[in-house]
């Protein structure tokens, strides 16, 4: 049988220790053990089946999600899972649901923006799920522009309460996940008003629904905002609309870590920067970067396995056609995505460390790294989600016609993933934040304030503005120092050029708007440098296992040279490399594809995904694609009857020409 033999033979060709690569991918032996155990637990539980998801009506789909969420919670309690194991279980259930927002945003917001007392009051309730919360920031009229939110929270000194109100239609909360049908509570972002004075946006814990009968509390209008892109996909989530009509909450339900309102109605600022009100967004953006590597690797795993099973043209002497993975065009589309999945994994790992480091500093009242953390999380969220969304679609095309079938798993993966380019900050808006940070850094060069963190390279501005790439032969592109210098010089030169163009404007804000398309490109260049440099740093660590390091080096070089090839215009126009060096990079890339080819299947096996998680007939571990595709087709409800419903009303009259006769 084609698939079985092909994948078994591919696996036997691997030139590295797959089990050790699994550890590298997971992050540690412990993480691998946990994710392996929990993913199998989910895969073997019939309640967590997802094969009918794309065929259910919205109501049935949603109820099924509630059933799974309740079952997941039951299993977490029964098995006494740790926080880490519980998070893995929710991940492998693989169905967007209110739980994501409760654990992923509501709880972190209270932890990050609540005082000690507020945490003591609310966190135990949230941890035991006695209340379910969501994150209600975006409104009908404003999402990106957080300072433009219109919901008001007016302090009433008579009663020691805030009055939460939606003064306009556009102030209706719109989009929060989990809000539409499930959440009992929300962190609501609104304008703090004291004595008619507007003190800007702050977070407030507001109860939305009765804990007895789940009905909305007085003054609250609430519902779901309707069907979203794709079948199944993100429609398991109850993204909601919410309006307040003078709803009163006690004063101590304003999240008061950043600023406090006293009983007398005085606003007291603590020593933490006001931007901490945006702290949950930094946290979630960091999580989204790790998640990008999961979504991309999942699509790549499906496309790689299928490309080894699928054969088209080129009859060989043994009468067998060519595996499509052997076509150079297939490799040049697929392998950069494989390399990107690994690259995003490692930059995600680093970003997690950076976030933890910033948090520890914040506890010690050191706020110096917050701007860099904001820029890195914003930029990398943007870069990785855009590349992943495009990458999933490319994987669909790599699977030819069968990729368009829901049973390939790719259409639903695409539909569920693409909003990541928008939520938690529109990707262009976030890149503009990075650009601001870069322009600020460039403007401070020579002022005595040394660039830090990921902008340290900008301290070598003179060298980077003048350096010439030393590549003379294709293999020179394999040297990490050569790659790094080219990426640093490109980023430096693009940032400096943007800053110089900006300086020509009398009004900096106007200049920023005018040049924003170029500024976005400079931000992309900086973020790609971060990804490349973190991959190179990873390779400097001790990497055990036969051949593992060699494979990762090849993937790192593929990622870097693919980006170089894709953005050749930047590298050439800034004079970082010559056309000859560009063509040597291309030659090296081709050679790297050949190096990865025999290891491709093993490299996707190292993700350690179960067939349940992949939910793809094309990506099955055993490669048994054709019989299963055939089998799946017959499961479609349209095939329940041989003659379809509607035959008599709509097909028969055409065939019998009754419709034409009626018109004549
Ligand atoms: C299926 C699930 C898949 C993946 C998820 C995986 C894991 C996630 C885990 C859990 C989550 C669960 C599910 C996720 C699914 C969906 C969740 C989606 C949730 C949401 O979308 S919530 C809403 C998010 N909204 C936004 O992101 C809005 C975007 N806008 C902004 O962030 C800002 O307003 C802005 C950055 C655009 C602001 O621009 P501005 O110019 O107006 O600036 P300000 O005046 O406001 O600020 C000036 C000053 O402050 C600095 N700044 C800005 N932001 C921050 C920040 N976050 N931290 C620190 N500093 C910040 C800025 O740089 C300026 O500094 P300066 O020095 O004065 O220049
Ligand atoms: C599936 C999903 C789940 C969500 N979940 C939540 C949630 O749980 N809680 C919550 O509060 N919100 C949630 N959101 C809302 C989400 O965070 C916002 O939609 C997002 O921040 C983008 O804001 P916007 O919709 O206002 O886009 P807009 O800002 O209106 O963007 C429209 C266009 O304008 C461009 N644009 C905007 N401003 C600028 C600028 N300054 N310069 C250049 N171009 C600009 C953008 O690039 C984009 O092309 C969710 C959204 C989705 C899709």
TrEMBL record:
One Pfam family in the UniProt entry: ACOX_C_alpha1
Coiled-coil region list: none
Domain Acyl-coenzyme A oxidase N-terminal: 17-132
InterPro entries referenced in this protein's UniProt entry, alphabetically: ACOX_C_alpha1, Acyl-CoA_ox_N, Acyl-CoA_oxidase, Acyl-CoA_oxidase_C
GO cellular component: peroxisome
Family the UniProt entry places it in: Belongs to the acyl-CoA oxidase family.
Gene Ontology molecular function terms on file: acyl-CoA oxidase activity; FAD binding; fatty acid binding
Compartments (UniProt record): Peroxisome
Domain Acyl-CoA oxidase C-alpha1: 278-439
Superkingdom of origin: Eukaryota
Keywords from the named record: FAD, Fatty acid metabolism, Flavoprotein, Lipid metabolism, Oxidoreductase, Peroxisome
GO biological process, alphabetically ordered: fatty acid beta-oxidation using acyl-CoA oxidase; lipid homeostasis; long-chain fatty acid metabolic process
Domain Acyl-CoA oxidase C-terminal intervals: 480-656
UniProt key word tRNA-binding: no
Cofactor needs: FAD
Protein name: Acyl-coenzyme A oxidase
């Amino acid at each position: 049988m084609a698939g079985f033999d092909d994948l078994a033979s591919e696996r036997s060709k691997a030139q590295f220790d797959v089990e050790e690569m699994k550890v590298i991918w997971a992050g540690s032996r412990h993480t691998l053990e946990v994710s392996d155990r929990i993913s199998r637990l989910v895969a073997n539980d019939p309640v967590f089946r997802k094969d009918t998801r794309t065929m259910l009506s919205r109501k049935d789909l949603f109820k099924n999600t509630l059933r799974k969420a309740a079952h997941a919670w039951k299993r977490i309690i029964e098995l006494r899972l740790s926080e880490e194991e519980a998070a893995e279980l929710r991940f492998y259930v693989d169905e967007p649901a209110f739980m994501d927002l409760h654990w992923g945003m509501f709880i972190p917001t209270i932890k990050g923006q609540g005082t000690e007392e507020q945490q003591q009051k609310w966190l135990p309730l949230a941890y035991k799920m006695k209340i379910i919360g969501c994150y209600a920031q975006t409104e009908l009229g404003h999402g990106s522009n957080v300072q433009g939110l219109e919901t008001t929270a007016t302090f009433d000194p008579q009663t020691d309460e805030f009055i939460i109100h939606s003064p306009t239609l556009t102030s209706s909360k719109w989009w929060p996940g989990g809000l539409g049908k499930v959440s009992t509570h929300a962190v609501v972002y609104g304008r703090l008003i004291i004595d008619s004075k507007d003190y800007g946006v702050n977070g407030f814990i507001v109860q939305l629904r009765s804990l007895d009968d789940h009905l909305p509390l007085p003054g609250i209008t609430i519902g779901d905002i309707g069907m979203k892109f794709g079948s199944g996909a993100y429609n398991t989530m109850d993204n909601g609309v919410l309006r307040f009509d003078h709803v009163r909450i006690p004063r101590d339900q304003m999240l008061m870590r950043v600023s406090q309102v006293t009983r007398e109605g005085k606003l007291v600022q603590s020593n933490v920067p006001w931007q901490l009100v945006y702290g949950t967004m930094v946290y979630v953006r960091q999580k989204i970067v790790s998640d990008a590597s999961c979504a991309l690797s999942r699509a790549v795993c499906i496309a790689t396995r299928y490309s080894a099973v699928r054969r088209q043209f080129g009859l060989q002497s043994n009468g067998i056609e060519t595996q499509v993975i052997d076509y150079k065009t297939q490799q040049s589309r697929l392998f950069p995505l494989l390399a990107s999945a690994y690259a995003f994994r490692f930059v995600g790992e680093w970003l997690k460390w950076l976030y933890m480091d910033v948090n520890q500093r914040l506890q010690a009242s050191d706020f110096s790294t917050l701007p860099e953390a904001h820029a890195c999380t914003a930029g990398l969220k943007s870069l990785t989600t855009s590349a992943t969304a495009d990458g999933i679609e490319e994987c669909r095309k790599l699977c030819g016609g069968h990729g368009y079938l829901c049973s390939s798993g790719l259409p639903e993966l695409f539909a569920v993933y693409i909003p990541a380019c928008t939520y938690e900050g529109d990707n262009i808006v976030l890149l503009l934040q990075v650009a601001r940070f870069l322009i600020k850094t460039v403007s401070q060069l020579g002022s005595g304030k040394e660039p830090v963190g990921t902008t340290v390279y900008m301290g070598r501005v003179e060298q980077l503005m003048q350096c010439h790439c030393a590549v003379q032969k294709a293999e020179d592109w394999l040297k990490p120092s050569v790659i790094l210098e080219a990426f640093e010089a490109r980023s430096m030169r693009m940032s400096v050029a943007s800053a110089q163009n900006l300086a020509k404007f009398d009004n900096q804000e106007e200049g920023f708007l005018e040049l924003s398309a170029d500024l976005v490109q400079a931000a992309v260049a900086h973020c790609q440098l971060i990804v490349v440099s973190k991959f190179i740093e990873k390779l400097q660590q001790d990497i055990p296992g036969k051949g593992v390091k060699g494979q990762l080096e090849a993937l790192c070089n593929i990622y870097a040279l693919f980006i170089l090839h894709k953005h050749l215009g930047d590298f050439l126009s800034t004079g970082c490399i010559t056309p000859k060096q560009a063509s040597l990079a291309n030659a090296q890339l081709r050679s790297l594809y050949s190096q990865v080819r025999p290891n491709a299947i093993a490299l996707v096996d190292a993700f350690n995904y179960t067939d349940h998680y992949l939910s793809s007939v094309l990506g099955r571990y055993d490669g048994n694609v054709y019989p299963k595709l055939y089998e799946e087709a017959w499961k479609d409800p349209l095939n329940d009857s041989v003659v379809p419903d509607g035959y008599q009303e709509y097909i028969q009259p055409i065939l019998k020409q009754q419709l034409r006769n009626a018109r004549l």
